[in-house]
């Protein structure tokens, strides 16, 4: 790590004893800030229609083999109101970039949940005009997840990532300026990625006005132009997570389900051992899950049982307080955190 808290290539490629020590330091940093509690969020995948064509994503508009779905908001509202697991304090609404789903599913669903529950609501729906973001905020969502995907603009264009790199960054900054809490993220191990590319992700994350950040290993999607590419390395991904945690101890950093695809059975728990403090239970109705095709049809679905087992096995416990309340108060279990970094970096 250099003096700005940024990782070096050596640290990102570390293995063995030095890697274990690095991960322990990251886990310790998370525990010092957040205690042993992790936030438990549910995710609902509401549509797999997408107007973007990201080369790495199975939902890209060019993929003609995927059956497209758009859920009905009444079905989802009933599911969440009547059947959500007790541990879930927040809900994330996710979709391909589908303006129809935002209007016809996300907005009425958020309004219904806001009326009937205290759930914190986050959205991960893509890049839109500021007026649509404003409608989502007005409806009651408070956290926007918009990943910058990769910090090298030329690679971003090559991967046909959403819109242009400049627009994506402008959206992230615009959301924060409009009063959203914002989480972003990047993919580790995309084909052709250099150390310089990797390090640029940390510099960009650090410069953006963020409240959280994620790292996902690249998973070659079965039905994408990158199907035959080499998958992202789990150790590299975990080292990136540890580096993010040490760079920004105050950030909310998820253990993403793709870690379990990269390393079946153990990847997710290793994420929790590397300073993650957010887990996600998949609440998408079973009839749609198979077609929400980020990577492969054989997804490892993170059910409540799997999540609670993983947390307990790592000596962690579900947070009784929501992520949304945390962002509003910056307190964990009633104790204020030493924050201020956001103002400095914003
Ligand atoms: N459409 C929204 C957007 O663009 O922000 C949200 C949904 S998008 C499918 C969610 C995230 O999945 C993307 O931001 C990307 O980082 C991730 N993703 C897609 N394909 C992936 C792959 N093959 N490997 C790893 N992550 C992937």
Outline the structure in words.
This protein is of the alpha/beta class. The protein has helices at about 10, 15-35, 75-85, 100-115, 130-140, 155-160, 165-175, 195-205, 235-245, 260, 265-270, 285-290, 305-315, 325-330, 340-345, and strands spanning about 35-45, 90-95, 120-125, 145, 180-190, 210-215, 280, 315-320, 330, 335. Strands 1, 2, 3, 4, 5, 6, 7 and 8 form an eight-stranded parallel sheet that branches. A two-stranded antiparallel ribbon has the order 9-10. α3 (about 75-85) packs parallel to α4 (about 100-115) and α4 runs parallel beside α5 (about 130-140). The longest helix has 19 residues, at about 15-35. It is globular, with a radius of gyration of 19 Å. It binds S-adenosylmethionine. S-adenosylmethionine (SAM) binds near residues 59, 97, 124, 149 and 187.
Summarize the structure in short.
This protein is an alpha/beta fold and 346 residues long.
Q: Which helices and strands appear, and what pairs or packs with what?
A:
Blueprint: H1 9-12, H2 16-34, E1 37-47, H3 73-83, E2 90-95, H4 99-116, E3 120-124, H5 130-139, E4 143-145, H6 153-158, H7 165-177, E5 181-188, H8 195-207, E6 212-217, H9 234-247, H10 258-262, H11 267-272, E7 278-282, H12 286-289, H13 304-313, E8 317-318, H14 323-329, E9 331-332, E10 335-336, H15 341-345
Helix pairs in contact: 2-9, 3-4, 4-5
Bound molecules: S-adenosylmethionine.
